[in-house]
Design a protein that fits this description.
Elements (H helix, E strand, L loop, with lengths): L8 E6 L3 H10 L5 E7 L3 H10 L4 E3 L2 H5 L6 E4 L6 H10 L3 E5 L6 H14 L3 E4 L6 H11 L6 E9 L5 H4 L1 H4 L3 H4 L1 H12 L5 E9 L11 E8 L4 E7 L7 E8 L2 E6 L8 E3 L15 E3 L5 H4 L2 H14 L7 H20 L3 E2 L11 H11 L1
Parallel strand pairs: 1-2, 1-4, 2-3, 4-5, 5-6, 7-10
Antiparallel strand pairs: 7-11, 8-9, 8-15, 9-10, 11-12, 13-14
Helix pairs in contact: 1-12, 4-5, 5-13, 10-13
């Protein structure tokens, strides 16, 4: 791909819901780009979002959007059951694509998304926000500096009590909180332990302890073992009634790092009357509350979009690609297998056996340039 560093990137957004709103809020602060079109099935919702973010064109499907001459890069902000078709529509138009997490409802769907972009050769990025969250980026910089020695274990927790309606439908989501939240935890573990070390097996437990509106687990814990014998621990749940709980710990041979994106926000308040919107999936709007000052920034949406736009403009491989989306999904598949078996379950990464590792992809790009 040739460099686009001299011209703004023209972006098309597919979706007009919760995550699309976060992407659009973040993009307002990103240079060298403009959102030229929005696709959504609901005309009323599409027009409302387009008006709010000053988007000039609204269409009703991904294929029409991707085929437009004023769209260079398509951002898919849809539930995971719609990802394969949306990616196929974008790739058919030969356009670059960013897809939100999880890449599919399982590893097979994620592998299909990866196959589509690989066969055509379009630029692609996987929008998993946690590896762009400011607190975790700072933690990674500390880790890379050698401040805590060699990373031994990574513990990641993401839980809340208010899943989206599509997430509660197992047929649409591909599971419970393990699929929708666990993909974040897997990504964090892989990032800190090192992409060069493949995850090889998992041991896990999960069950439905309290919720009556889901058929999947509502609480789960997993241990992912990597090829270098390091482990990542995953904790997820839809039973955290207090609201969104996002915490991480990185343990090294010479130190320790902890992050808390939603508990230590720099502001605490007591609301005698309703505070209205407090934060994503807040447990309450009265009493003691901990608002997140700028959610899109805190969760990594600004940095993620800025990174993706910069990489696309210069034809570089982004921090997260569909390869990562596939691996994260494959790990979660193995977690579900481990829960069913009650023993360690192997992680099947066979879909990427023919795809060069990240460093080799960079070398090939440099040779072609």
């Amino acid at each position: 791909m040739t460099s686009r560093s001299r011209t703004p990137v023209r972006i098309g957004i597919v979706g007009a819901g919760f995550v699309a709103d976060l992407y659009l809020r973040a993009l307002q602060h990103v240079r060298f780009q403009e959102v030229t079109a929005l696709a959504a099935r609901s005309p009323e919702k599409a027009r409302e979002v387009a008006k709010r973010f000053d988007i000039p064109t609204v269409v009703d499907n991904a294929r029409t959007l991707a085929e437009r001459d004023d769209v260079d890069l398509v951002v898919i902000a849809l539930p995971q059951d719609l990802h394969v078709q949306a990616v196929a529509d974008v790739v058919a138009a030969g356009k670059a694509v960013i897809c939100t997490k999880p890449l599919g409802r399982n590893a097979a769907e994620a592998a299909e998304c990866l196959r589509l972009v690989t066969e055509v050769g379009v630029w692609h990025a996987y929008a998993e926000t946690e590896v762009f969250a400011p607190a975790l980026v700072s933690a990674k910089e500390l880790t890379d500096s050698g401040a805590i020695g060699e990373v031994l274990t990574v513990r990641s927790r993401e839980a809340h009590g208010h899943p989206h309606e599509h997430a509660k439908d197992a047929a649409r989501s591909g599971g419970g909180p393990l699929r929708t939240l666990g993909c974040h935890c897997v990504a964090i573990g892989r990032w800190f332990i090192g992409y060069e070390h493949a995850p090889v097996e998992v041991l896990a437990w999960g069950d439905r302890l309290a919720r009556q509106d889901v058929s999947t687990e509502d609480t789960a814990t997993a241990i992912v073992r990597f090829a270098n014998q390091r482990v990542a621990q995953i904790e997820v749940g839809w039973n955290h009634v207090a609201g969104l709980d996002v915490r991480n710990e990185i343990h090294g041979t010479r130190g320790w790092i902890a992050t808390d994106e939603t508990g230590s926000t720099g502001i605490h308040a007591y609301a005698g009357s309703s505070a209205g919107y407090v934060m994503e999936k807040a447990g309450n709007a009265t009493g003691w509350i901990t608002p997140v000052p700028d959610e899109a920034w805190t969760y990594g949406y600004h940095a993620e979009m800025a990174h993706f736009i910069e990489c696309f403009r210069h034809g570089a491989t982004p921090r997260q690609t569909f390869v990562d989306g596939y691996i994260d999904n494959a790990v979660i598949d193995a977690v579900y297998q481990a829960i069913e078996r009650g023993t360690w379950a192997p992680i099947d990464l066979s879909a990427i056996s023919q795809i060069p590792p990240r460093q080799e992809q960079e070398r090939i790009k440099e040779q072609k340039a």
